[in-house]
Amino acid sequence: MMAKAFSVASWNVEHFGAMPKNKAKPKKPVEPIIEYLAQQNADVVAVYEVVGSTVYDTIVTVMPNYQFHITEGPQTQEILIGVKRTFSSFYTQRLEFKSGVSVLRPGSLLTIQVDGKAYPLLFLHLKSLTEPRGFGLRDDQTERALKLRKVLDRACGSGGQANYVFLGDLNTMGMNLTFSTKDVSADEEIQRLKKRVKNRKMEVLAKSYSETYWPGSKSSYSPGNLDHVVAADHLQFKAFGSAQIDIRGWPQETTPEKRDAWTRKYSDHALLYFEVQKV
Q1: By three-state DSSP, how is residue 216 classified?
Q2: Residues 6+ apart with CB under 8 A from 247
Q3: Based on CB atoms within 10 Å of each CB, which residue in 91, 96, 172, 181 is the most buried?
Q4: Which stretches of 156-212 are DSSP H helices?
């Protein structure tokens, strides 16, 4: 049995229910959402779609044993990273993941040190939309994440391999190409992602529940498989049944009505939890 290096909780809180016209004003109480995050007791937490001024008071009160970092820039959907104070870590904001678009999110690169080994974690919130431009930006952002693997491997010296993981809301929703039969389904985009990362000696980790996004029982949209964890293929993870990622939140609810209630209180995205084993 390998020993745990650290655990991670990754969660898109969908602006705490805020509307596009006023993203700084949550529609639902922030406290229960942060308390649910704190209950996971993860060593590293990543929260997507937050505004620092909205969450600051609550998160430093509810989670006092963490150091926090947040992305900055003209974008309105920030990525907040928290690390338990018992860990040695280094944080870098990576602007190349904006793909030249000022309002897109940068990447958040957090490197954790455990027993003298470095574990680089890249947290991403990729471009949404099924339009060709959205698909193309996601494609570019993903390629940048894969190229970073080469950079990190070189930093390990001759023959080295970085303990690299990239994860987050990758928005694998496919592409609709009008007046054409060349649409890309969401599943096809995910299968393509799996092939791309395998070519770089990485893998998309298996989840305990495939869908991570619940649009609501009355919605015309189907549940979406949008959130993923991609890891260097030499890394080991705690098993949750046959999965490496435990999906927590609305998938545990037994009826559509209960899922609706959970998403109204928390988020329409489930939380992803996993444990990296020591190399």
Answers
A1: coil
A2: 207, 208, 209, 212, 270, 271, 272, 273
A3: 172
A4: 186-198
How remote is the C-alpha of 236 from its chain's centroid? 19
Can you tell me the distance from the alpha carbon of 191 to that of 194, in angstroms, rounded to the nearest whole number?
5
Q: 47 - beta bridge partners? A: 11, 80
C-alpha span between 249 and 263 (Å, rounded): 8
Q: What beta strand segments (E) does the chain contain?
A: 4-12, 44-50, 66-70, 78-84, 88-94, 107-114, 117-125, 165-169, 202-204, 227-232, 246-248, 271-277
**pLDDT tens-place string over residues 36-83:** 999 999 999 999 988 877 888 899 999 999 999 999 877 768 899 999
- How far apart CA 42 and CA 275 sit, in angstroms, is 9
Looking up tokens 């980790």, which residue turns up?
205
Hey, CA dihedral for 223, 224, 230, 234, is it positive or negative?
positive
pTM: 0.95
What is the dihedral sign for C-alpha 82, 110, 100, 140?
Answer: negative
Spatial CB neighbours of 80, under 8 Å, sequence gap ≥ 6: 46, 47, 48, 50, 52, 55, 59, 68, 69, 70, 71
Which residue has tokens 């060593």? Answer: 43
Chain-centroid distance, C-alpha 263: 18
